[in-house]
Structure formats: structure tokens, C-alpha cells
Specification:
Number of helices: 5
Domain Thioredoxin: 1-105
CATH architecture: 3-Layer(aba) Sandwich
Number of strands: 5
Site (Contributes to redox potential value): 31-32
Shape: globular
Order of helices and strands: EHEHEHEEHH
CATH class: Alpha Beta
Active site: 30, 33
Protein name: Thioredoxin
Site (Deprotonates C-terminal active site Cys): 24
Low-confidence stretches: none
Strand order of the largest sheet: 1-3-2-4-5
CATH topology: Glutaredoxin
CATH superfamily: Glutaredoxin
Structural class: alpha/beta
Number of domains: 1
């Protein structure tokens, strides 16, 4: 599956309706974004089980602002509606492949348990 453009109107539904969603926040004028684009596109073709979305920060300024995007490209990774990763910077192919492998291997029950424990600890400190 090739990458798909995400907008404010379909972003939330895309995250809710798909198990794993990678999101590349980019802009046409951004050199590192243009360098990362073919790497990201290739990964989308190799991993059809993952949704690879792209958000044009120029066209979708409200969406970029909602996620606090300050630097592009920024890659975000969601699994089961949980934001697992958010990092600016273009990744080399090997680093993106490694991230994909890590996300696919995650035990999401364990992730949810860790989130619940962290939230409980925060509540105790408040």
C-alpha cells in the first residue's frame, strides 16, 4: 500500500480504524522531508499491514499545530490508538526498518499496563 495523505477531517478516523499508523509530518519546501519521502514510500510498499500517512504541514496547519509540530519531518507512530513515538528528523532506511520491527514486536497489553502504572503513579503524586 502506498502512503496516503491525511487531513484534519480524516486523521482521527485513520488512527481509530487501523491497528498501526505511521504519520510523516512534512512540507514540500523541506529538504530533509524530500530526502525521507522515498524511504518512507518504500517502507509503505513493503509493509501493507501498516498505514503510512503523510500530513502536509503547509496545507494542514491546524493539524500540525494540534500535535505541536515544531520541526519537520516529524514521524509519529500510533498502535491501537496509542502514540508510541514522536520524533523530528529524517531517518535512514535502516533506522525506519528497525522502528517498524520494534512496533510490530510490541506486546500492547504490556504497553497498556505500563501506561496505567505511570498514570497511577502520577495520580498518587498529585
Amino acid at each position: 500500500m502506498a502512503t496516503r495523505n491525511l487531513t484534519l477531517s480524516d486523521f482521527e478516523a485513520t488512527i481509530q480504524e487501523n491497528d498501526i499508523v505511521f504519520v510523516d509530518f512534512w512540507a514540500a519546501w523541506c529538504g530533509p522531508c524530500r530526502m525521507f519521502a522515498p524511504i518512507y514510500e518504500q517502507a509503505s510498499e513493503v509493509h501493507p499491514e501498516i498505514v503510512f500517512g503523510k500530513v502536509d504541514t503547509e496545507a494542514e496547519q491546524q493539524l500540525a499545530a494540534a500535535f505541536g509540530i515544531m520541526s519537520i519531518p516529524t514521524l509519529m507512530i500510533f498502535r491501537e490508538q496509542i502514540l508510541l513515538y514522536s520524533q523530528p528528523g529524517a531517518l535512514p532506511k535502516e533506522a525506519l526498518d528497525d522502528l517498524i520491527s520494534q512496533v510490530l514486536a510490541l506486546d500492547m497489553d504490556d504497553v497498556r499496563r505500563q501506561i496505567a502504572e505511570a498514570q497511577a503513579a502520577e495520580a498518587r503524586q498529585a
